[in-house]
Amino acid sequence: MQSDQFPFDALALWGQDRLVLWNRRPFSLLPPEGLSEGSELHSLDPRPLDPELLEIDRQIASLEKTLADLRLRKEHWLGARSLVRRLPPEILQRTFELAVHESPGLLAQLSLVSRGWRSLVLATPVLWTYINLNLDDDSEPDAEVHSRLLRKLSTTLQRSGNCKLHIDLDAFSHGSRDAFREIMDLLTPHLARAYFFHVSVPNWDWMRDIAKHATALGPMLEHVHLGGIPPRMIGEQEEEPCVVITHDCPRLRYAVLENVPPRALRVSPLKLCVLHVILDQRRNTGVRPLVDINELLALTSGADELRRLRLQRLRFVLTRPVEVFKISRTRTHCIRMLSLHDVDSASIAVLLDSGNFPALVHLSVDVGFDVEGSHYWLAILGGAVVVVSLIMEPVQQGNSLLLDPG
């Protein structure tokens, strides 16, 4: 005899014709859409509510209010006796300073925690030294946005007091050259306090505007970062570059040039310790910037304290190629570490043929797929013992060897 009972797993194999759909409603007075969230059954009952039920609701509401008041009193009690309140203002200010240094956008959040924290934030000028007027990707530059940026800049400069400034400007995010000039006009009286200055502009006309205002830089400047100009192709008409910084910057130790030729820095005496000449990665057009080898060597040879030189994704051009074949090469006295990333072997050979690096102890080269082309420039190295690090594609494996050219 076949049983009418089916195992539970067999229910999944039933067809729609064997499923019995029940259309029963537990409450005849329910609306067609059923119970809504937060509704109560007694609100659907047409009979008048019992006084006892009303009293229960009143007591529940009273208890809920009492519970909310007690929770609020507890929060006030814990807040008044929290360990953070016991910190001296100097310790809290230093904590804020370290936090804002890591994340400048944290400043607005710190000022909204409490009245005490806001008063402390407003009374700490060093927290207002990070000037970043770059717009978000989804923000459209217009008159209202520009006006808001000017108000923000004016307030920040006022609250920063006499502290050193960290300035980061991206002209690509601003609508027009005139709008950017207004920002620079507002910044110029305070540029003498800038220890970090980063600016990206779309062309040399904008960079000339920067050069006019850059005369105020110098006394505090430690780090300069210039870039943004798209590199030209071979045979393409080049815009006339300009010299951006010409005056004495006694504290300048770090410089980054993105798509900007070395002639942009004409500081004497130049006390750079680190120099990067690289391609702008944020706006990569696929064209490598052309760098005059004579300009680069003239800049590096004049920097008596330069210890590290990094070149990335560029090509060298020879305006005076006959000088490469002279016996005497341009001597750079102090460079100890030379990093070449994604630079073709021909450009590496030109650099090593044209320059003399007697203090070089570490050469790091990303040769990519051009492994065979590295044999020539490896033979050019002379002087002291040099540690050469080769990074090869596609295995992304770094190899180091100790080379004694002597």
Highlighted features:
406 residues, alpha/beta, 3 domains, 11-stranded mixed β-sheet, two-stranded parallel ribbon, 10 helices, 18% strand, elongated
Summarize the structure in words.
- The chain is an alpha/beta fold and 406 residues long.
- The chain folds into three domains: 62-125, no CATH class; 129-287, no CATH class; 306-406, no CATH class.
- It contains ten helices and 15 strands.
- The protein has helices at 51-80, 89-102, 106-110, 115-122, 143-159, 177-187, 204-213, 293-301, 345-354, 374-380, and strands spanning 130-132, 165-170, 194-200, 223-227, 254-258, 274-278, 290-292, 308-312, 315-317, 330-331, 337-341, 355-356, 362-368, 386-392, 397-403.
- The strands form three sheets. It has an eleven-stranded mixed β-sheet with strand order 1-2-3-4-5-6-8-11-13-14-15, covered by helices on one side. Strands 7-9 form a two-stranded parallel sheet. Strands 10-12 form a two-stranded parallel sheet.
- Helix 5 (143-159) runs parallel beside helix 6 (177-187) and helix 6 (177-187) packs parallel to helix 7 (204-213).
- The longest helix has 30 residues, at 51-80.
- The chain is elongated.
- Mean pLDDT is 78; it is low at 21-30 and 394-406.
